[in-house]
Fold:
Amino acid sequence: MDKIWLSCNPTLGRWIFLRMNLPNSTRALLLDLNPWARGMEKGGPAAEPLVQARRRAGEMRAADGHRGWNQWAAAMLALRQRLQHDAPSLQVWRETATADFAGQILRGQCIFAEFVFPGPVDFSGVRFTLDAWYNAAQFMDTADFSEAVFDGDGFFEHAHFSRPAAFDRSRWSRDAQFRMSKFSERASFREARFARDAWFAGTQFHGELSFAGAEIAGEAGFGSCCCHGPTEFSRTHFRGNAGFERARFIGAACFDEARFERKAWFNHASFQAQASFERTRFHGPADFADASFADMPAVIKSFAALARQFNDRSA
Structure:
């Protein structure tokens, strides 16, 4: 049985080598798909060069465009299917399939539209100096964009995140475009800062969603979104208009201490579980016309009463 040294502890950010027994055919295919890993067969070079080798291989593959990348991704996913009942080998596969761009400054075109990422993706701390394109990208494993800086627009429309996605403390100088995207598990935008618009219209959130402590300076577009899990907009600062018209909140929705500086639309929104608006501040008009609640919060009852009084006086 051949052996390969290829395990990584991402928490420590360094390679920890373990002997892994892999079938000859699996080992050969893995190395054919990832020639950069050949140096590890007998202990290989030191940790940092291994990280650099994997990163360089990903950069070169990405430069060839989505067709070449996706051919590699399809082969890697087929190999993963063969290893699905072998946990140690899956760990080897997962570290090999990782796309690691963490901490880089991407000065050229950043086009990942229609890319399939078979393993974990790490864009944490990346600075995108031009527009970042991820339209219709498929993230099959975890996606980490925490503390990323977008100097241009960020396009994630119709993207699919199969595993947890983190955009915590990300910074967006221009527009964030997530229309019609899908998050199958947890999505986190905690303390993110959007200097312009953030568009999530029609997006499906199947796991927990958090925008806690985030700030959106421009338009916040969440119309027709569907949030299946618990949703948190506590302490979120909406400096522009905020649209949640026809949004569906199947899980609990928390807007505690959120601030709406301009108009907030919740018309035809559906809250099917507990909705909390404790200490929420509405500095502009708030429209809850035809919104439905499992248990209407007191502040919404007050809005409804004021609306009735206004209509009575106008009659």
